[in-house]
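Please predict the structure of the following assembly.
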Amino acid sequence: MLEEIKKIERRMFRHNLEDGVFEIVFGIFLLLSGFFVFAYSFMSKKTIFPLAFFLGYSLTIFLSLLLMKKMVRSLREKLTWPRTGYVSYQEGKQRRLKAGLRGGITGFCFPILAGLAQDLMGSVPGFYSYPAVFGLVLVISFCWISFRSGLIRFAAFGGLYAVIGLILSFSGWKHMQAWAAICGVIGISLLLSGLFVSRRYLHRNPVPAEDPQ
Amino acid sequence: MPSSPWDTENIDRLIHEPARLAIVTILNVADSADFLYLQRETGLTKGNLSSHLSKLQAGGYITIEKTYKGKIPLTICRLTDQGREAFRAYRRYWQAFVKKTRS
């Protein structure tokens, strides 16, 4: 009986990530971040553009954290809920999963902003400039998500990002370009994975032909 | 708490039924869920699910709100505080049961 209860609870955790919507939205966000950092790396520090870009990006990140929730909800309203029904997680243990996701995103964004600020002030790029840090932050977040949801692909992503982060850190690239590369790689992999998972999910779960009530 | 491993008097019969237990477990994790979601997760037919939801509502364990999203009718179910407490007590009962049978 207790096993049955645990099984149902685990399935509930997993449900939130099964439709691939979160991966798509997070992937787009990271791709945009990658483009930004890449563009920033070519800007002359003597002009006002890098500062304006930095401020704009800071604002965009915080707005994105709010917009991501709305985007996920909007996509789910169109894709997921008509097929598998509406469920909202505002109480109970699902809070921890959401807090973990938010922590992962914040943990990813903070080093970018800190590193950019450091770069903007002209100081020597320090700890934050290494993409390996991003990889390690993501290993922890993604392995935790994988453990809670039982979805192996997130642990695989975490491992992959750690390796890519380490490779980029020692590649000899300029640190800004290495950031752009890791953001881009992670963004593309999440986006592709999300699209694949979402397509399979939609294929497996057609809209019920008649009124479910 | 059961006095013997086979003490069945303390079992909450309203939750003990497997289909209703599945419904209550889902609603304990979620804040709210609609009829379609519960139907897919439990694998029950519409009639069966309706019947179990009515029993849980009559017992004061869940609330059912009928609403619309556009033109689509939605039946949103939520666990009440009484239902949540009953689920916790049921879980505690089984945990105690397992502990007793192991010792």
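The interface with chain B takes residues 1-2, 4-5, 8-9, 11-13, 81-82, 84-94, 208, 211-213 of chain A (CB under 8 Å). The longest helix of chain A spans residues 49-78.
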